[in-house]
Amino acid sequence: MTAADVRDWDPGDGRISTPSAARAPAWSADVPVRPPAALPPLAPDRGPPAPDWAEVVEHFREGLIVCDAAGVVRQLSPVAERLLPEVAVGELLAASGVAGLRTPPAGGEFGHRGRRLRVREVPLSAGRSCHYVEDVTESVTRADALLAERARSAFLAVVGEKLGNPLHPDRAAAAVVRLAVPTLAEVAVLVLAPRSGRARWWRATRADDEAPGVDSGVLNAVDLPAAIDEGLVGAEPHTLDWLVEQAVEAGWLPGLDAVDVSVRVVPLPGRDLPAGALLVARRSARYYDEADVDLLRAFAARAGAALTTAVLYRDQAEVADTLQASLLPVEPAEVPGVQWGTAYRPAQAGLRIGGDFYGSHRLPDGGAVFFLGDVAGKGVEAAVFTGQLRQCLQALHRVESHPARLLRLLNDALLETTLAHGQGRFATMVLGVVRPRRDGGVTLTMSGGGHLPPLVLRSCGEVETVGLSGMLIGVVPDPRIGEVTVELAPGETCLLYSDGVTEARGGRRGDEQFGVDRLLHALGGCHRMPAPALAERIEQVTCDWLAHGDHDDIAVLALRATGPHSRPARHLHAVPALP
Amino acid sequence: MTVPAAVGSPADACPGFLLALESADEYAAIETALGLVDAGVPAERVLLELVAPAQVEVGRRWASNAWSVAQEHAATHISERVVAAVAARANPRATRGRIVVACMDGEWHALPPRLVAEVLRLRGWQVTFLGASVPAAHLVSYLHRHDAHAVALACALPMRLPHAYRMVEACRRSDVPVVVGGRGFGRDGRWARRLGVAWAPDAPAAADLVADERALRRVPPVDLAHLADDEYASLVKRRAALIDSALGDLRARVPGVREYDAVQLDSTVSDLGHIVDFLAAAVFVDDGTLFTEFVEWLTGILVSRGVPAAAVALTLDHLAGELRDFPRAVGFLAGGLALLAQQAGASAR
């Protein structure tokens, strides 16, 4: 919408003119503009009582100048007289010297004696013509002010939308300068509050074609222009020549001429001290007036909030990530003759940690302890508990490597913690020891604490369920713990998984459990698969079954006997783990 | 001129490489690829002219039922190891910004984006590959922590397009430019245009696109005004009911279905789910060709597994009746039926 649209706005309520002199000025914005020459000549007077036209015309908001066929002014209404004192009755209108009357500008508007006038010429009968002259100064000013205000709020709305989302701090900084151009500046420079003596800056420069170009850099804090320093402690330096000089000296204003530039600096409010200072510059032709500076401050408030939030968010995410990383399962240790495969998908995707855990520790005799389990609950608390469990096992496996005895030790340790804290958690788990055999197979000794029994994929393609039961770990002092020994020939795989797999809800109505039968079927024909591919397959079929519903934590640990014929592992060493 | 046999080209090595994939011989596959790299073939060519075409062939063999799912999985896993080995051998130095590469949520075809990731890495970008089926929340929180020059998202199945759109929006809210790729956006990327997101047909094109910041920022307008008719939202809401009624209809009309065992029933339900999901995706992007292309693909898969194409026609017909208040969906179903009729006519002749 342009200013012209607002000015030509027709109320559409049939108000054409207002005879009341007292109200006349108030209606000035409502006069509809008719295209010239479209009106028929005024109808002749008819019927008594004849109105006194001169009296009526006197109260018109528009001034009237009636000229004869020769262009000589014949009649002049009082309003016209006041607006155009140069025009006199009996003289040629063209001789009045008012340029806007001789060659009417587009839209019929022109400035005259500090007023904004709108004129339209209407042909009358007998070659005569009438100029209608209206003073539109106020409505134009009002419309312009309205549009400017509207543009300002639209700009701030866009800024709010762009900066309202949590962004990475660098993204937020780049977005701030990009948004400032071209509305606020031709060049915008954001200097962040220095950290350890160095200040990072971002700059957006207006490009003629499209999006502004953004670049960035680092300055030593001592080299910052004085005006920026002031901005960084919250002061708002005034537009002075030295401000321009400083900006030019810093090399921040490419394409702008130092003598013809207007610069402002505003602080961007932070939590305590400003988060940074924003320098805006544009040609002096667009000097920063009061309204511009108000807009700049409003922008700075939003930008400061966005920068502060971004840093806060990033710092918190960093802390959370570090803590999460310590709670994530560690990939199993490499053991000769064994290929591991794992999959891990926590219930809360954004959190990336959960109550399932797995891992392995190498034993001095060449074998390894391995385990997979599930603690009661989900989320952060459950994850913290898995961390405690894993640390316990890390320490305990050094003193005890017999699976059932190790699990008992763990049970005692957990119970002790529970007693000490007055509250506790429990876990289900399978814990085993793998020992390579001479023939390339492996022997697994496993003990179970209330967890789902392991599955074994035989080389003939058969899938066996290992009979392994036992009680929960961390509940009673001397739990019944199951024990079993399984031999894996080369190429055979043992699979541990958490109940997130079998209890995944999905299917036709979305409420059916995936179940052991579907898992067994999905494993059919998979006996030749490498262990990592097998683990990933289970993760995939489970997630496909979920059909994007909520799910419990999912963990899979596959252990494959690679056999004696496996080539030297040097190739594998060259292959980094998939991220 | 004769080329020394030891050097060879990726194309020459392909049959041997496929043989290694078929026998799940990880070492042989890695040796073949590294042999090419060591003989001076650029790593990018090994990835794009050996691993990529072999993977296309693996997909074809699965679709034609020549290979089992397990075989396909194993082969894909080995290809991934090969990609990792080739990348490690080339060991490029990162000199440019960070690019995050990820599969859409629910999307498991990780090898193509992995190839894109490695090509970008070979061209000097610092690449983070987040892997298969990345939840949007995970991706967004990653972007909050690590500033990325761009995100490359892969989508192999058009039925994930609505998810893809949400994921693209999430990245946009983080003010990070997005490039998408994969067959899910159509052979010519037309559904990427519909969603208003930059699209690259292959890895080199993706590399060119991320290198051009202005092209990245130049986002085509989103063209989803048709969603105002609520057909997509209603279809999603009625998904379970539609599958249920379609299954009931099959049971009533096809005698064999009543005797299906649990496994057959599961796979039928899963196929019906795909039909509804692809129909919903077609409604989402308002393009009937999405659905017809899917019907063509599905009948190919089913026929190779002994399920007659007529069964698909029955279901489409049934859905058209159930969805009579959904003019766009009904139109797309009619398109699918017309294709099936045409195929039936062709095979009868």
UniProtKB/TrEMBL annotation, chain A:
<feature type="compositionally biased region" description="Basic and acidic residues">
    <location>
        <begin position="1"/>
        <end position="13"/>
    </location>
</feature>
<keyword id="KW-0378">Hydrolase</keyword>
<dbReference type="InterPro" id="IPR001932">
    <property type="entry name" value="PPM-type_phosphatase-like_dom"/>
</dbReference>
<feature type="region of interest" description="Disordered">
    <location>
        <begin position="1"/>
        <end position="47"/>
    </location>
</feature>
<dbReference type="Pfam" id="PF07228">
    <property type="entry name" value="SpoIIE"/>
</dbReference>
<protein>
    <submittedName>
        <fullName>Serine phosphatase RsbU, regulator of sigma subunit</fullName>
    </submittedName>
</protein>
<dbReference type="InterPro" id="IPR036457">
    <property type="entry name" value="PPM-type-like_dom_sf"/>
</dbReference>
<feature type="domain" description="PPM-type phosphatase">
    <location>
        <begin position="338"/>
        <end position="561"/>
    </location>
</feature>
<dbReference type="InterPro" id="IPR029016">
    <property type="entry name" value="GAF-like_dom_sf"/>
</dbReference>
<dbReference type="InterPro" id="IPR052016">
    <property type="entry name" value="Bact_Sigma-Reg"/>
</dbReference>
<dbReference type="GO" id="GO:0016791">
    <property type="term" value="F:phosphatase activity"/>
</dbReference>
<feature type="compositionally biased region" description="Pro residues">
    <location>
        <begin position="33"/>
        <end position="47"/>
    </location>
</feature>
UniProtKB/TrEMBL annotation, chain B:
<dbReference type="Pfam" id="PF02310">
    <property type="entry name" value="B12-binding"/>
</dbReference>
<dbReference type="InterPro" id="IPR036594">
    <property type="entry name" value="Meth_synthase_dom"/>
</dbReference>
<dbReference type="InterPro" id="IPR003759">
    <property type="entry name" value="Cbl-bd_cap"/>
</dbReference>
<dbReference type="GO" id="GO:0005829">
    <property type="term" value="C:cytosol"/>
</dbReference>
<dbReference type="GO" id="GO:0031419">
    <property type="term" value="F:cobalamin binding"/>
</dbReference>
<dbReference type="GO" id="GO:0046653">
    <property type="term" value="P:tetrahydrofolate metabolic process"/>
</dbReference>
<keyword id="KW-0479">Metal-binding</keyword>
<dbReference type="GO" id="GO:0046872">
    <property type="term" value="F:metal ion binding"/>
</dbReference>
<dbReference type="InterPro" id="IPR036724">
    <property type="entry name" value="Cobalamin-bd_sf"/>
</dbReference>
<keyword id="KW-0170">Cobalt</keyword>
<dbReference type="GO" id="GO:0008705">
    <property type="term" value="F:methionine synthase activity"/>
</dbReference>
<dbReference type="InterPro" id="IPR050554">
    <property type="entry name" value="Met_Synthase/Corrinoid"/>
</dbReference>
<feature type="domain" description="B12-binding">
    <location>
        <begin position="96"/>
        <end position="220"/>
    </location>
</feature>
<dbReference type="InterPro" id="IPR006158">
    <property type="entry name" value="Cobalamin-bd"/>
</dbReference>
<dbReference type="GO" id="GO:0050667">
    <property type="term" value="P:homocysteine metabolic process"/>
</dbReference>
<protein>
    <submittedName>
        <fullName>Methanogenic corrinoid protein MtbC1</fullName>
    </submittedName>
</protein>
<dbReference type="Pfam" id="PF02607">
    <property type="entry name" value="B12-binding_2"/>
</dbReference>
